[in-house]
From TrEMBL:
GO CC, any one term: mitochondrion
Annotated residues for binding of a divalent metal cation: H74, D112, H234, E238
Keywords for the protein's UniProt record, in alphabetical order: Metal-binding
Name listed for the protein in its UniProt record: NIF3-like protein 1
UniProt xrefs under InterPro entries: DUF34/NIF3, DUF34/NIF3_sf
GO molecular function annotations of the record: metal ion binding
Gene3D superfamilies: NIF3 (NGG1p interacting factor 3)-like
Species in which this protein is naturally found: Papilio xuthus (Asian swallowtail butterfly)
Any Pfam family: DUF34_NIF3
UniProt record similarity statement: Belongs to the GTP cyclohydrolase I type 2/NIF3 family.
């Protein structure tokens, strides 16, 4: 990738690179992905901050690091904004970004669907020989969720340990399938980053479901069908992807853009 503008890249070039990795067409129809905030006066992009959720602390973090752009996995602008005033935290963020000429891009479900994206990162918890999207996307080998056939049986105890390692979590929640034990073997896994209940409903049978959060009755239904369920909390099933992706994205720009990962971004829920 060449840069004819000196140090840094034009915003349009950065967006093109992001969408080469995950085309916007992969986003779900209900989602709000793409460029969400574009300051009137343009700047070359030399630093990008990656975050799972954009809070005011994260916006300030980007400013203090001198970032001209934030890539927020979850779109902070989802419902229409009727004003940009200081009484709402989301509107304050938009106001702050515009004032400080910081662009905002959100990929969300396009990163879930694409090859090498969030769901494939989550799938790396397991030794699988075959991975297929649960709901196929518009491009081959993309789509919502992943169904895995493992290349060797593992125990439920091992599955939990593997998920903790990949997500860097000390704790996960586990619902054991009816008649199952921690020593029972896992051969098939269905997973979906984030809130995966609606996707996992399309799976008739599996040994294990893995997602961030599910409704109580969906968990109950799965366990009564003999399917064990691991829940990590919503964004904890997604956030770890950013660590590995940051260096890959920086390499795509020949290290002419510094790609940082937010230190203030975290799931609002903790186990106490």
């Amino acid at each position: 990738m060449s840069n004819s503008e000196g140090n840094g890249f034009m915003l349009a070039e950065v967006i093109n690179t992001l969408e080469e990795f995950a085309p916007k067409v992969l986003s779900e129809s209900w989602d709000n992905t793409g460029l969400l905030v574009q300051p009137y006066t343009t700047r070359l992009i030399t630093k990008i901050l990656l975050t799972n959720d954009l809070t005011e602390k994260v916006a300030l973090e980007a400013y203090h690091h001198g970032c001209e752009m934030i890539v927020s996995y979850h779109p902070p602008i989802f419902a229409p904004l009727k004003s940009i005033v200081q009484s709402s935290w989301k509107e304050r963020i938009v106001s702050f970004l515009l004032e400080n000429r910081i662009s905002l891009y959100s990929p969300h479900t396009s990163w879930d669907s694409t090859q090498g994206g969030v769901n494939d990162w989550l799938a790396s918890s397991f030794p699988y020989c075959e991975s297929t999207p649960i709901i196929p996307g518009v491009i081959p080998n993309t789509g919502a969720g992943r169904f895995l056939n493992l290349n060797s049986n593992i125990s439920l105890t091992d599955a939990v340990a593997r998920v903790k390692k990949v997500t860097s979590l000390k704790h996960v929640r586990l619902a054991m399938g009816c008649g199952k034990s921690m020593n029972d073997t896992i051969q098939t896994v269905a997973l979906c980053a984030g809130s995966g209940g609606s996707v996992l409903k399309n799976v008739l049978t599996a040994d294990l479901f893995l997602t961030g959060e599910m409704l109580h009755h969906d968990v109950l239904d799965a366990t009564q069908r003999g399917i064990s369920v691991i829940l990590t909390n919503h964004s904890d099933s997604e956030r770890g992807f950013l660590r590995g992706f940051s260096s890959k994205l920086q390499n795509k720009f020949d290290n002419q853009i510094l790609v940082l990962v937010s230190e203030y971004d975290k799931d609002p829920l903790t186990t106490v």
